[in-house]
Design a protein that fits this description.
Elements lengths: L19 H7 L8 H15 L8 H26 L3 E3 L6 E3 L1 E2 L5 E2 L1 H5 L11 H27 L2 H32 L1
Antiparallel strand pairs: 1-2, 3-4
């Protein structure tokens, strides 16, 4: 077993999202170790680096914090692997979690998709929803007017159908420009 302080995946902060590979390395285990081995390694290392046993030792406290974060990460991984079909690393925060597809086709955890502190991935911004709704309504009205024109041969219905079609095209253009602006702004 490797030392708890040496990890080949880097020395990231224990408070950020730790990947399962980093967690296995922090506990000195091979990837995909069984739960009993994970628990035994955690208990042994936690006892060795516990702050009560190593008072005023900053390195022991750092290792203990990293070991606790690794154990929590691996427990979460094992739980998620049992429950969900699609699990892995979130494209945004790097947490190991159940994943959902965002509108940009990347996979995100639920927290990143719905977080109010980050740009939302779902649902679409209200302006896009509104312009899409206007387009659909204009197309429906135009279709009804076109049907009335074919039934009555009234020129006024044909003009109304043409106007609704033109308004739908303008609304569709506004939607496309808004989506392009939103995508560029999020990058």
């Amino acid at each position: 077993m490797r030392d708890a302080g040496s990890d080949s995946a880097g020395s990231g902060s224990p408070t950020r999202g730790m990947t399962p590979d980093e967690a296995y390395a922090a506990l000195g285990l091979a990837p995909a170790a069984p739960p009993k081995q994970i628990r035994a390694a955690y208990r042994r290392l936690a006892f060795e680096y516990h702050p009560d046993r190593n008072s005023n030792d900053a390195e022991s406290l750092r290792r203990f914090t990293r070991i606790a974060a690794a154990y929590a990460t691996l427990n979460r991984k094992l739980d998620l692997d049992e429950i969900h079909d699609e699990v892995g690393l979130c494209s945004r925060c790097g947490q190991y979690a159940a994943l959902l597809a965002g509108i940009d086709r990347n996979l995100y955890c639920y927290r990143c998709l719905t977080s109010i502190f980050r740009p939302p991935r779902l649902p679409a911004p209200p302006i896009i929803v509104a312009t899409c709704g206007v387009t659909i309504v204009m197309l429906l009205i135009g279709s009804v007017m076109l049907g009335l024109f074919w039934m009555t041969r009234g020129v006024a219905y044909a003009a109304a159908a043409f106007a609704c079609g033109a308004a739908a095209l303008v609304s569709l253009a506004v939607t496309a420009v808004t989506i392009g602006y939103t995508i560029r702004r999020r990058r």
